[in-house]
Design goal:
Length: 156
């Protein structure tokens, strides 16, 4: 075997070892941030408590012509004055609504795993609704304001 192929093989081997060591060092520096769950694992009670808290939320509007679903993101501003905000959970998904001078308005909504948004009336209006559909069937969440707070209304 000639000198050139041996040098090429040795160079390739050295590069591979160096890249592997750099990768392992980077993972060691980052630590649990890559492999762990941020904030730890939460049980159902902690999740329900977090969903029920009136944290300010905004949505990125969806384009209904392409069937998009809004994405909820945390906002740094508080809800508008006099507007109570509440979270609602169904088997099909979660929605956050608030009451304001123009009526009730859906702030954000998110289908549960295996579901999708079938129909939505985000308001503001006298009532708003969101329908989630999936393998388990259809789940409708219909809301209105009562005493300045969003509440579930029975289906007609």
């Amino acid at each position: 075997m000639g000198r050139r192929p041996l040098l090429a093989a040795a160079g390739w081997l050295a590069t591979t070892v160096a890249a592997t060591l750099v990768g392992l060092a980077a993972i060691q520096l980052v630590g649990a941030g890559i492999t762990g769950t941020p904030g730890g694992v939460r049980d159902q009670r902690e999740v329900a408590r977090a969903l029920a808290s009136p944290a300010p939320v905004t949505t990125t509007p969806a384009d209904p012509t392409v069937g998009g679903t809004p994405t909820a993101t945390a906002a740094s501003r508080p809800p508008p004055p006099g507007g109570a905000r509440r979270s609602f959970v169904t088997g099909g998904g979660t929605a956050v609504a608030e009451c304001g001078p123009s009526g009730v308005r859906l702030v954000s909504w998110s289908p549960a795993q295996g579901n999708r948004v079938k129909d939505i009336d985000r308001g503001p209006d006298d009532h708003v609704e969101v329908r989630f559909v999936g393998a388990e069937g259809e789940h409708e969440l219909r809301l209105r304001c009562r005493g300045g707070e969003p509440v579930v209304t029975p289906h007609d």
